[in-house]
Design brief:
Layout lengths: L1 E7 L2 E7 L7 H13 L4 E8 L5 H16 L3 E5 L3 H9 L7 E3 L2 H6 L2
Parallel strand pairs: 2-3, 3-4, 4-5
Antiparallel strand pairs: 1-2
Helix pairs in contact: 1-2
Length: about 110
């Protein structure tokens, strides 16, 4: 898994490439903590290139959501693949996260 970050105005966009699973979750967590350390309050996680998320990956995303929310910020997810979107629906996590079809739409709504 590779996580790339870019700044679009006041928003940090993390683009994840690969699976978010037991082995890669610690790397994703480190990337997210780096964003929090920079005091960013608006974060988008683009999941275009993520075909699979396991339970540890979900836990990492929930933790990231809670941390940004507790610091007064907002986290949005974009570009969920069909399989990943189904996982969020089955686990009811689509009610917790702000999910947008595209990165551009998520940016517009900040």
């Amino acid at each position: 898994m590779v996580v790339k970050d870019k700044k679009v105005g006041e928003v940090v966009v993390l683009t994840v490439d690969g699976e978010i699973n037991f082995n890669s979750s610690p790397d994703f967590r480190k990337a997210f903590l780096k964003v929090l350390d920079s005091k960013s309050q608006r974060v988008i996680v683009n999941l275009t290139n993520v075909a699979y998320v396991d339970s540890s990956g979900l836990a990492t995303l929930v933790e990231a959501h809670q941390k940004i929310k507790n610091s007064g910020g907002r986290l949005r997810l974009t570009n969920l693949t069909g399989k990943v979107k189904s996982l969020f629906e089955i686990t009811k996590l689509e009610k917790l996260f702000e999910i947008f079809p595209t990165e551009e739409e998520a940016l517009k709504m900040f």
